[in-house]
Structure formats: structure tokens, C-alpha cells
Amino acid sequence: MARDQIDTQPIESRDELVAWFEEGSKATSKFRIGTEHEKFPFTLNGHDPVPYEGENGIRALLEGMQALNCWEPIMEGETIIGLADTVGGGAISLEPGGQFELSGAPLITLHETCAEVNSHLEQVREVATPLGFGFLGLGMSPKWTLAQTPVMPKGRYKIMANYMPKVGTHGLDMMFRTCTVQVNLDFGSEADMVKKLRVGLALQPVATALFANSPFTEGKPNGFLSFRSEIWRDTDNNRAGMMPFAFEDGMSFERYVDYALDVPMYFIKRGDAYIDVAGSSFRDLLAGRHPAVPGETATVSDWANHLSTIFPEVRLKRYLEMRGADGGPWRNLCALPALWTGLYYDTTSLDAAWDLAKGWTAEERQKLRDDVPRLGFKAEIAGRSMLELAREVVEIARAGLARRDYRDSQGRDESRFLAPLDASLAAGQTPAELLLARYEGAWNRSVEPVFIEDAY
Questions:
Q1: By CB neighbour count within 10 A (0-12 exposed, 13-18 middle, 19+ buried), where does 295 fall?
Q2: For the whole model, what pTM was predicted?
Q3: What are the pLDDT digits (tens) for 57-103?
Q4: Is residue 4 part of a domain?
Q5: Domain count of the fold of the chain
Q6: DSSP classification of residue 107
Q7: Which stretches of 280-361 are DSSP H helices?
């Protein structure tokens, strides 16, 4: 989350909230790809986490990046907490434990997306290397305890950190010790949104398996292939999960509004101040009777910020966010948007993906989601292994990308970005299983080599 919304236009009715979503519908020609990825900064000497302050801290990194790319600083009071590209639309932000995130610009092709990723990684290396730190792409920090992990100076994170332990066992792990790569994709209408939401929710465990990359915690195997995904199973189940209601008759923008209204709030922001209202009702704010701001009604900013604190496997804003994948090596940062773009932005592929999943029951979908963090490709649904299912899903995506037929300067279409997934499927092993094999073999049961061999 790069920057909180700033729009003080009042919202006084539920219908206005529904209309806000409806305004997100776009013509197919306006569809864009927005890729976000997080990574762990670590000191080159000692492989320790990087604090915010200090000559060689995160603040220095942000200031160096700002000098290099001339993006606008995002400030919280006197503190720099991110950077915004006011021309292209991208942004750099900090997650709670210092995870460094690029929120990519909305781009037309995957060729542009991957060029953006590579340019960003070149820039962060240029600034970070003289400061003495590098970056690691995994789904969970492999070494550090929560106590060792720094806390970034953002007001919303303090509120969340106080609330998380009240509603689940893994909220602080999620905040401070996980990284993801996700893609944001558009919809053309309410019906298109519903179909894409259902496909995304049903097949999100496929992405979790393909990108499973968090098998270590505090220096040892944790028993999972995607512990990041397992963490989400008990973070805050009032605002996370598979949203079974999305598959019911009558699913609509209106139905999602009702769901979001019932998700407890974290905060209300007025000016630069975050007001802790964790557990309270957005319905009270909408009605002008919220005790934290008596007499005030909700604003567009309040609604957009509230939606950013809801964490289902697929999140609806004015676009759809695919949230099931672990962070990973640079090659996977292009593979994740390639997978979902191939499924979503070609009607034949979208239909084929829905045909795969439409017969599954809510119980089958949930069991698959629950099994994949531990079993990966060995999980099963409706008599099929995840490995078999993932191979078919990737082929559907490949065909969709081929039909899109966006070519690079060498004449290659976008399907080339699926190559890392092809390698995993051919081996029948998730990225996490390959890490575990190295841990048990060449790494001599140490995670330290991951900071050398898998750094960006």
C-alpha cells in the first residue's frame, strides 16, 4: 500500500459505495497490468534486517532513490515513507517490517511490466549496494525473529500491530515477516468482475502452489512450502479467506459492499493523524454516528482506505488484486502477472478457466486452499492433483497470451514470461522444495547461503 487515498468528498449512502465500484469498469482497450512486489532488505555483512534510521538505513535508501529517479517523496509528518511517480503512476512504499515494495504503474503489456521490474531492481541495487545491503525474494524472512525485525514509522501499522493479536495468531508474522508478488487487473462490467473474481478465488491456490517459496522460519524448515499462505489462514478471518459468498447467485458490487461494510475498521485518517478505531463499524461512520468523529460522515478516502485493510485471496477495489503468491526471485516477478493476464485478458482463456473450476463446491475450494501451503503440487481437488491442474491452468494462460499477441522487439509474445512456471511443472517441484533440497544438501542445513544465491 503506497499511499493512503486523499479524497474528502462525502459519501452518505450505501448506493454511493456501490457506484464507486461501478466506476471502475473499463473498456477492454483500457485494461492495464499493475504488478506489485515486495522484498526483504538485509545487510551484506551478517545478513541482518535493515533498520529505518541510520546512515545505512531504509530512510537513506528512500532518499537515495528519490535523488536517482526524482519521484515525489511520500511523507508522514516529517518522515519519508515512500516515493510516488506522479507521471507514470508507480510508487515505492514500505511494509511494516521494512519490506521494500514497488507498486508498478498500470501498463499495457507484460514486456513493459518486466522492463519496469528490471529497471527498479537495477536502481535499488545502485543505491543499496554502497549502503551495505541487498534484497532477498522469498515469501517469508528465513532467519529473523519478530523481535529482531524492525518496525517502520507508519501510523497505520502501529494500529494494526496492536489489533492483530486480538483476532488471530499470525497477524504480526504477516505484517513483519512476509513478502508477496501480486498483480492488479481490470474488469469491464459487473458481470465481468464477478466471473474474474470467481476464477481468481477458485484458482488462487494454483498460484500459491506455483509460487510457494517460504519454507524457512528462524533458520529452520517450518514444515510448509508456503508458510506465508498458511499465515493468512489465521491472521484475521473477518477480513481474509476465500469469500464463498462470491459464488452465490446474485453476486454483485452491491454484495461486496455489504461484505466490506461488515469488516471491522482499523483506523480513520484525518489530516496526517491516524485515529485508532480498530474493531469499529464502517456502517456507523457512513451514518454519521461514529464515536471517534461524532457528526462526521464518511469520505471517499475513508472508503478506499478501509478497502485496503481487507485481505481476501482476491481483493476487489476498482480492479482485482491477485493475492495468493509468495515473493520470489526476479524471474518470478514477471511470471505471476503473466499467469493471470493470460487467464483474465483473453475471453477464451477466461471461459476455459471457469470451466475448470465451476463444478467445485465451496468445501472443495476451501480444502484445496487449506492443503496447498503444506502439500503444494501434491494437493488434490475433485480427484485431480494440483500438479495436473496447474499444468492445465498454465497452458490456458499460455494460449491467452499467444492470442493477445503483444510482441517485443525480438518478435516474442508474452508467453515467454511463463518459463519459470514451466520449469517447476516439468520438475514436479515447487520453488520451496528446491530450496529445501539445497538446505539439506549443499547448504549443510543452513539458510545463510540463500542471502547470497537468491539475492536480487
A1: exposed
A2: 0.97
A3: 999 999 999 999 999 999 999 999 999 999 999 999 999 999 999 99
A4: no
A5: 1
A6: B
A7: 282-286, 300-307, 330-344, 347-357
